[in-house]
Amino acid sequence: MTTAKKPTRAVKSSSKKKPTTRKKPVGTKSTKAKPVEKKPVGNKRTIKQKLWSWFWRLSILVILGLGVWLVYLDAQVRSQFDGNKWALPAKVYARPLSLYPGLLLSAKQLKAELLWNDYKAVSHVVSPGTFGRDGSDWIIYRRGFSFADRQEAAKKIRLSFAGGRIERVMVAGEMRGLERIEPQYIGGIFPAHHEDRDLIALQDVPPALVAALVAVEDRGYFDHYGVSIRGILRAMKANIAAGRTVQGGSTLTQQLVKNFFLTNERSLRRKVKEAFMALLLELHYSKEEILQAYLNEVYLGQSGRRSINGIALASRFYFAKNVQQLDLSEMALLVGMIKGPSYYNPFRHPQRARERRDLVLGIMSELNIISRAQRMNAQGQDIRVADSGRAGQREYPAFIQLVKKQLQQDYRLHDLQSTGLRIFTTLDPWLQHATEKSVQQHIATLEKRIGFKQPTLEAAAVVTSVDGAEVRAIVGSRRVRYFGFNRAIDAQRSIGSLAKPAVYLTALASGRYNWSSIINDKPVSVSGQDGSLWQPRNYDRKDYGPVFLVDAMSKSLNQSTARLGMKVGIDQVVNTFERLGVDKKIPHYPSILLGAVSMSPLQVTQMFQTYASGGFAMQPRSIQALTTNDNQVITSYAVQGEQVFSPQIIENLRYGLQQVVVQGTGKRLARTFNTTKIAGKTGTSDEQRDAWFAGFDDRHLAVIWVGRDDNKSMPFTGAGGALPIWQDIFVESGLEPLTPLVDLDWAWVNTQGEVVERECGVRKMPFMPGTLSGRKISCDESEMNSRSDSRIDGQLNNNEGGGSWFDWLF
Amino acid sequence: MVRLVVLVFVVISFLSACSSVPSSELNDPRFAQSYEEGYGGNKGQNNQLIRLDEGKHHPAVQVLLSQAEEARQQGNSRQALSYLDQARQIQPRNPAIFYRQAWLNYQLGNLSQAQQLLQRAKVYMSTDKVLQQRVSSLQNEIDAKQGR
Q: Catalytic site residue A217?
């Protein structure tokens, strides 16, 4: 420190002397010249020294800064490149198609499901992912697949059919009890950038594809350290010669760095960063690791909101094949598309794609990767791509939204979007397609009939299994591929007469009523607490007088239903709604009896599920199992639901719901299916703003809604608007007539609803088991009662407990 | 000629009887009945299930019950429940499957779920006496655990 200060002091003192020396006489110059002359020399050295000093300081600072930056970049490179490189979206699968003896399975469905799953029909079935016929037998070469429960190898399955059902399932000449076709991919739960990819190891990529990639994108790949000066110079030369950018000088490593770590920003800063990161990447990782990452990272196109990344997914997306199954022409096309996936998109620009493919094949031939004959053969092939909108690659928005919603009750969205979970669901692709087709066709037909020029009507549908409430199909809009407002889940619409079964169920469960009870269908007037009057009328404005309870429901009569509801009590009806599993607050107003309550189609499904399942309240369920990317089961779901009504009461109610089809608003179903063993209910809200139909057979429950988003009225009811959609779904998927849950007691009744002998009975009606004893009257007594007409509405009077405030009004 | 016809008839009958596919399998498998049988012929154990794959079932259900039992023995109860639910989807009203689901849930201490499933077994109960005994016995055990 002391030595460093000395010259400073000297400089300071000498400079202070400067004015003094200038004032000295000239004669003194020689004597004083020495120090004076020395001063400038000394100053020059000092400045040089200062400059050097600053230069070195700056250099050290720059080197230190660069070092710190490199350490930072290095940390960034290693932290992002080690372990999980990508945010892997959850992949969602439909239910697997189970094959077992006795299964009712049409050839049409089997073929469709195989094709949707990217199976190819061939004459000789020799490789996984193909199927064919051998006489009346079907032979399916099932691919290897990690199901939710176990990994299964590829196998050839032979199916024999008899009477529309599978007779035998054979594998390698042995009978099997159960085999499965791997489930169809139906969508993903993507991060914000919507990148999708299937990861693949380098050893699983055909060598010819890797060779083509290196030949086209970076010939010196195995010789450089991440950056290729030769490549940059070559690109510069080519670009200068062309007067525009025709060639890039980036190596594969740089391209990977740009796509993986950086943005598409075109700046020198980004370019420098890219070069350093490429060097660091090559320092830490082998050429093979980098190449594998490149093959998984590379962007190769867009499918709606979904970004197609990586060779494996692109291979499946464009050609419906595994990478290993690609032929030379397809490999060359994929490699060629890297330069511009949109520009060389084979769906939209087949000619450009072909030219590019041929160029790649030319390079491959030139570098002896392939022979001349192979090149000529491949170049002679047309561009053959699979339909990008096919079932196996399209998404099912309404169902995915439901899955996401149900999963978010237990899992964080971030985990769903990034950890590569595999979600096995309950979706039945066959039913889903039938539902979508039916919705779209009927909405178009209705609009044409009404004369709407613009798309005006909307629709939603939910289909579940009756016993387990598994959601088999869901449509949230007429635009079935639209990821927007999901009316099946989120629309709250007035349910109209779909509320009526709850009123009748309350009456039947009270033990005071049965289907033969008589109720008076005459005008009703109820005053509300605010002084307003509620005066519901029948749809056709007619009064039907005394009617059987079952007729009031099957014909959807408003007056008699309102009357019955007031008799049994609004509180009791609200309680029934709650027991049925309706997860929303129902107001205690008289108008709820006729459906002045809003629900989503999914909520209606939950309510009807209890009728369909025999009295078990169940939440519709869309998820079967959840596994990690490496196939560890995280959760599996099973049937759940509490019994809220006895099967006897529900069977009794189901008789009434079947009468809707026998003689009521759903009569056309009996004609179409040639059976009356179908239960259902139409619903139409006030001013025909909503048209509903909810119905079930022995396997499936379907709820259909048709309406307008602007909530305006429509010129049709539930029977005209929604029921035909239900009908077509079941025509396509097959209808299984209802089987009784339990045996009810049956008896003949007279016009007053009294149990009578066969001879004087007018209708046979069901009764709760064990309730008929001692009720039967003779035909003479029946005749007498008929004359006095004492029983009309009498049963109601007999049962009045004075509990309902409605009773005081009449 | 008559002898020939009779012979052909006998041969066809014999062959059809030997067929490994029972004719009932060609009917709707949803309604194919299961039959409980005491494991290893031990009649003393009739009111208790020992293995999930006991008894006679539809071939597809039998496969899944065996897989469920295998998973259970490996200590993977979640997987076992998943196989049982797959079996239930094939035969959604088979009381023997509901009983097994209830039984396994009971073993795992999920009493409320066991009770719900046992209730379903009762709703769809068959005429199989062994199953009836088992359901009743499990109900007693659940009641005892729940202090009823």
A: yes
